[in-house]
Amino acid sequence: MIRSPGAGTGMEETTMANSLRLLEGRSEQPTIAELHKYILSLIAMLSALLSLKQQRAGMASLLDIDDPNFVSISVALTFYGGVSIGAACILEAHPNSNWGKLMSNLSLFFGALTYILELMILVPALGVAALLFWIICFVSFMTVYSYPYLKSQNIVYKCSWSL
Hints:
74% helix; disordered N terminus; elongated; mainly alpha
């Protein structure tokens, strides 16, 4: 039992013991919903920093439609939202669907892409390094997770090269 110094009532002991019990029952990996919350909070935080940077630079508004940065962030947010909604609909209709799981993982990738694009505006060198890492992760994810699906659908054929 963990005893805090000066605790006479034992109330701190039960609170800490309950917290430890809750942590022991928790799985190691966060759920998809928790990851979406983290991504959305990071996107919101960088958006606030981005607006501060724009104000400091003397620019009128963050929402400059002609700016390529704004267009790329808008496209990434649209993909993130669209794929997230698609994954939710697929998982609601077919809870154990591999396609729904793939779509929910893709939505996490597009959320990370949105975050990285904002990071590229704030700190270009770090953003480019993160984008290269994102591309490697995305290609490896698509290769690993799409191959079994394509193989089960008999889409992957053996190539016979004749010279």
